[in-house]
Amino acid sequence: MPYLRxxxxxxxxxxxxxxxxxxxxxxxxxxxxxxxxLVDDRPEVIIDAKKPxxxxxxxxxxxxxxxxxxxxxxxGFNL
Length: 79
Known about the structure:
globular; 2 helices; Type I restriction enzyme R protein N-terminal domain-containing protein; HSDR_N; about 25% helix; Trna Endonuclease, Chain: A, domain 1
């Protein structure tokens, strides 16, 4: 959070663990974005947080990109 604040974002512009529902055929799946930064009450940045010990991989990139597509915003970021 301190890093996001240093970029000028306040906590009232953020949403945490927001549910995102995806439809896969007849099956509904609920995913949770770690952090969404809102602009005009719409998510503009999706952040998928990982443990510092975690090495990012292609699956992580696909995960956050999928979140961004589901909420119709720019590609997300892995931290």
